[in-house]
Design a protein that fits this description.
Length: 396
């Protein structure tokens, strides 16, 4: 395929990635409204997101197996996008807490297919520019994360949250259909090279788990995900309940958080290609911890809101760096499984973070959660510190 065709594929995959983030970003904005309507405690609010990430953790490794043994990458991405968007439509028709948990669990299952498919595919297409290309893919996610709260926050001024959820499903269905039509048969290479027998796969999986770098990077990412997911769960709640912000202004603050991440991703990806993954990862995590402590100290002041954007710059700069680093520790034919393991580990952190943060908030108040989040990102950095130097060299 021509270079121009490859870039067209990159941008379509990036748009799809944006939609996989659009729906969760919408839901984070709706959580304060849903919690108020159903009379939920902070722990119950945290359990909603915990349930989604438990499902994702259970499904990510099997999703990686599916990716590495099936060559139809475009079809898998289309199915994943549909499976992420449709359960959010069902949420608009549910009035019970238990059914709400079932719906978000379905989202977790669908999300488990996207990253193990898209990230290794892009990494194989651009082997010497992984950091940059994955940062562009990550920017699609940042756009979805950033624009959704702003757009949905404005829509909530005119519609109920249930009406917004129903209207919101259309973009995902359209893009999933486009991906099925244009990328449904895509394997990005010879199908024989893209797929492998299950026995060959099992041999590669044993080799994969012997990698100290993969294990440490996955565990470190578990704690980083605790930070990120708990923040996204309770920052809107804090802004709405403690600071009295309307849905529009809550959405504007989340937009600032994600827009800063949008700006940081390509910078961090490019620098990690040149300076090495470990240097950029550790710097980003250390700065994230400092900003979280500063937010806790700032309380409900205007400085707190300003620090939200600073936090986004450092927190989201890390995603493409970790993904490129993981691919470099992995045999080419096991890329889907390595990303499945990474996102499975992150889903474990994503499951634990909101519930633990909710328990902290119930006992000590919402501001205390920011100290808890600072501690989790420091622990993540400690695991990164011990990753072998030989596994941190950027490809050239």
């Amino acid at each position: 395929m021509s270079k121009g065709g490859a870039w067209r594929e990159l941008w379509l995959i990036t748009v799809g990635h944006g939609l996989t983030h659009w729906y969760p970003a919408t839901f984070f904005l709706l959580i304060p409204l849903i919690g108020t309507e159903l009379g939920l405690s902070y722990s119950q609010i945290g359990l909603i997101i915990t349930c989604q990430y438990i499902a994702s953790a259970l499904a990510n490794v099997p999703g990686g197996v599916l990716v590495d043994t099936i060559g139809r990458k475009g079809l898998l991405m289309a199915v994943s996008l549909f499976w992420i968007g449709f359960p959010y439509l069902l949420i608009g028709f549910t009035h019970g807490y238990a059914m709400l948990l079932v719906c978000v669990a379905l989202v977790g299952f669908g999300n488990s297919l996207w990253h193990p498919t898209a990230i290794p595919t892009l990494g194989q297409r651009y082997p010497t520019r992984k950091g940059l290309v994955l940062s562009l893919h990550g920017m699609g996610g940042n756009v979805g994360d950033a624009v959704a709260p702003l757009a949905i926050g404005a829509a909530l001024a005119a519609f109920s949250w249930r009406e917004v959820v129903v209207m919101n499903v259309l973009p995902g269905l359209v893009v999933a259909l486009l991906m099925f039509v244009y990328l449904g048969g895509m394997s990005l290479g010879s199908p024989r090279k893209e797929s492998q027998s299950f026995s060959d796969y099992l041999g590669g999986l044993q080799e994969l788990f012997r990698s100290r770098a993969l294990v440490l990077l996955s565990v470190g990412s578990t704690f980083r995900s605790m930070t990120q997911t708990a923040l996204l769960t309770f920052l809107p709640v804090y802004l709405a309940h403690d600071m009295g912000y309307s849905p529009f202004w809550v959405g504007a603050c989340l937009f600032a958080l994600q827009a800063a991440g949008f700006a940081a991703a390509p910078v961090a990806g490019h620098l990690s290609d040149k300076m090495g993954r470990k240097n950029i990862a550790m710097s980003s995590m250390a700065c994230t911890a400092v900003v979280l402590v500063a937010m806790a100290l700032a309380g409900g002041s205007p400085l707190f809101v300003a620090l939200v954007a600073v936090l986004g710059f450092f927190l989201y700069a890390l995603r493409p760096v970790v993904q490129a680093w993981m691919l470099e520790t992995t045999p080419r034919n096991m890329g889907g499984s390595s990303i499945g393991i990474l996102f499975g580990a992150q889903a474990v952190g994503g499951a634990a973070g909101p519930l633990l943060a909710g328990m902290v908030a119930d006992r000590h108040g919402l501001p205390a959660t920011f100290y808890f989040l600072a501690a989790t990102i420091v622990v993540a950095n400690l695991f990164v510190l011990f990753i072998p130097t030989a596994a941190t060299t950027a490809e050239t």
